[in-house]
Design a protein that fits this description.
16 helices, five-stranded mixed β-sheet, Aspartate Aminotransferase, domain 1, alpha/beta, Aspartate Aminotransferase, domain 2
């Protein structure tokens, strides 16, 4: 019998290891309806109709598969989940309303009162706030450590430690954590390793292949790639993801079907975008470090980066985000930013449009001065997320900032 196009689409979803990442980013997870559509449909419905009361009862009880209510079952969201799970090499993904909702969900779904987290001190400022100010209300405590020092992670582990959490490369200083070493450490103490993979995406880094238990993304960043929607996603084993799904079903921190559809479209060009942005970021980083007025450039693709060898070992590229310190303190940094004309002054990253921000007063502004100092976020630090404009035009715009110092 001739195989149907629907059967071929199903095979891509369930036998994804036969395909390269570039193919998975375009095709994994799609389940065509009886209409045979070529694109991914958007199921803009809050609920689903059952053929009978018996079918409704069976679905609500979990005895029969099928959609129930869009807070926790929606085909468009499920397509996005299947595609990113295939890209990260995980058993299952669960989508959330934002990246922070994803982190909150693993905290409340997988931890309990009395548990302890060891977290990199170099993470997004809202992650610090969530752990240090809100999870503590649920009796979950955290210790923050140097992301690059495995011995510091080891020393921070307590008998009740149940999770290690990190970003690598870190936001905004491009510090690296040894994923395999920390996975081994976590598992030796019956803890989970969670890795925020926003900066590199599965195209350039696959933490699950290195031993991590859960990968999270702010899909708002590179997975979308054009700054259109907010969302998050977690990828891991079925056991942990089912627990997170239960929390999302009850707590309601769900992803909308429209946003899921936007992310599906974003994934189709992810490989092309992240590779091109990485190349441009490296060129900009090499150029910046030669400019007068620049005191230091932070980018893992620079050979002088203290963990350059680790970057080459666990990454397939260096990503599109870099940061740099300028002369003149905060006033100098603000003058630099304000002098640019083309680059967008905004805290988002991963966009095809280059963005620039002052971390100390934006993304990490809710951290205390002591917390920022500990994380190495100085007043003269600027973060740049390199987009897809002409790299020469980017240099000309940055030159305006240099001239303002």
């Amino acid at each position: 019998m001739t195989q149907s196009k629907f059967d071929r689409a199903e095979r891509i979803q369930f036998q994804d290891q036969d395909y390269d990442l570039e193919t998975l980013a375009v095709r994994a997870g799609q389940q065509r309806t009886a209409e045979g559509e070529h694109g991914d449909p958007i199921f803009t419905t809050s609920s689903f109709v059952f053929s009978s009361a018996r079918e409704a009862a069976a679905r609500f009880a979990g005895d029969e598969p099928g959609n129930i209510y869009a807070r926790f079952t929606n085909p468009t969201v499920q397509a996005f989940e299947s595609r990113i799970a295939a890209l990260e090499g995980g058993e299952r993904a669960v989508a959330t309303a934002s990246g922070m909702a994803a982190i909150m969900s693993i905290g409340l779904a997988l931890l309990q009162q009395g548990d302890h987290i060891v977290c990199s001190r170099s993470v997004f400022g809202s992650t610090v706030s969530l752990f240090d100010r809100y999870l503590t209300r649920a009796g979950i405590t955290s210790t923050f450590v140097d992301p690059t020092d495995v011995s510091a992670w080891q020393a921070a582990i307590q008998p009740n430690t149940r999770m290690l959490f990190l970003e690598t490369p870190s936001n905004p200083l491009s510090e690296l954590s040894d994923i395999k070493a920390l996975a081994d450490l976590a598992h030796a103490h019956d803890a989970l390793l969670v890795v925020d993979n926003c900066f590199l995406t599965p195209i350039l880094q696959r933490p699950l292949d290195l031993g991590a238990d859960i990968v999270m993304h702010s899909a708002t960043k590179y997975l979308d790639g054009q700054g259109r929607c907010v969302g998050g996603v977690l990828v891991g084993r079925e056991k942990e993801m089912e627990a997170v799904f239960g929390f999302i079903r009850t707590g309601g921190a769900c992803l909308s079907p429209f946003n899921a559809w936007v992310f599906l479209k974003g994934l189709e060009t992810l490989s092309l975008r992240i590779k091109a942005q990485s190349e441009q970021a490296l060129e900009v980083a090499l150029w910046l470090k030669e400019q007068s007025g620049i005191e230091r450039v932070f980018y893992s693709g620079l050979p002088e980066h203290p963990q350059y060898e680790l970057a080459c070992r666990q990454q397939k590229g260096f990503g599109g985000v870099l940061s740099f310190e300028v002369k003149g303190g905060k006033e100098g940094a603000w003058r630099f930013i304000d002098a640019t004309r083309m680059i967008s002054i905004t805290a988002n990253l991963g966009d095809v449009k280059t963005t620039i921000t002052h971390p100390g007063t934006t993304t990490h502004g809710r951290m205390t001065p002591e917390e920022r100092a500990s994380a190495g976020i100085h007043d003269n630090l600027i973060r740049l997320s390199v987009g897809l404009e002409s790299v020469e035009d980017l240099k000309r715009d940055l030159q305006l900032g240099l001239a303002a110092l």
